[in-house]
Amino acid sequence: MGKADVIIVGGGVMGSSTAYSLRKNGFEGRIIVFEKDPTYKYCSTALSAGGIRQIYSTSVNIRLSRFSLKVYEKFAEKMAIDGVRAEIDFKQRGYLFLATDKTLPALQKQLIMQNHYGVPSEIVSNADLKSIIPELNTDDLAGGLYCKEDGYLDPYSVMQAYRKNAQLLGVEYLSEEVATILTEQGRTTGVRLVNGTTYSAPIIVNCAGAWGAELSEKIGLPLPLAPLKRQIYLFNTTEKLVKPLPLTIDPTGVYFRHEGDQIVCGFSEDVKPGIDFRWRRSSFDPLWPILAHRVPNFESLKLESGWAGLYNYNTADQNAIIGEHPLLNGYFVALGFSGHGMQQAPGVGLGLAELICNGKYETLDLTPLRVGRFAERDLVIEDAIV
Ligand SMILES: NCCCC(=O)O
């Protein structure tokens, strides 16, 4: 039997940010991260669209995302190894929610809370929209909510930088799959791997993403989570846009941004919950007219490729579930990010590390995202879920 002080299940961005932050917070014990797929082929981090925004409607999401964005701004230098910067291609080209007459008042309300926490978001007019995206069709719009500090980055590079830095600090990564968490008298005692080996540890952190719900359910602690397929498309336009795009969200929910010279776009389709990575070209058909209506240059687009990833979707309130489980000592979770995990990973890792090392949050209060909120009927109602 192996022995550790902390076991983290899942080595994606959440698990790796947590492992790294534990070390940075002075945790000296043995930390093992079990990652079943070291190629990260199906990991939600690697398949994410990489949008980084602070424009949310709830205090906890705004604070957590703002903290994380500030980390990303200095990430390349801070995570450099042997003088080699950890480039993450963070392009602060802004985030833009386009609004109709109907949706603008809700965005105006969000703005007050965002500005209160120092987020430099602003309500922009149709004329402003034209200066941000000169080709935009604003005929049916009433303006938008824009934050120029926001943008997009390369999620895989962020995850790898956390992983490499954690390893340099002595965190062990083992390419094994955890079959179940072991418990005894109301506390965690370790994990059993699919290969039959057991590892003991007083603290287990479930960062298993889309597979995290199943792991929790096996020990009788179901969480309101479901994996949902999300497809992303990459296309070319013959007529290039004159300016780089912010990550732009159409009132229909279709979003798009530049990826080099190409455009990445996505949409949260209505799908049945389940593990499904099949990318279908035909799913793009309904998006094309929406894109062509919004930016006439997209009329003649050429769909090049795409991929499908999974949201670890919180079916109760579409927000992260973070912290120690109230019914099992030593069992911590960071799950349910519902498509906004990349925007929060640095803050989540730090928060969990503080909670594990010191028994409380110090830098950022993430209590609103606690596991117990479902039983307490104290949900976090967030209006800005894409
Ligand atoms: N979740 C896809 C990217 C858009 C957003 O949530 O900001």
Automatic annotation (TrEMBL):
UniProt lineage: Bacteria, Bacillati, Bacillota, Bacilli, Bacillales
Q: What is its EC number?
A: 1.5.3.19
Its gene is mlr
Q: Which UniProt keywords apply?
A: Oxidoreductase
Which parts of the sequence belong to the FAD dependent oxidoreductase domain? 5-355
Q: Does the keyword Transferase apply?
A: no
May I ask which residue range the UniProt record assigns to the signal sequence? none
> Per its record, how is this protein called by name?
4-methylaminobutanoate oxidase (Formaldehyde-forming)
| Natural source organism | Filibacter tadaridae
Gene3D superfamilies found in the cross-reference section: D-Amino Acid Oxidase, subunit A, domain 2, FAD/NAD(P)-binding domain
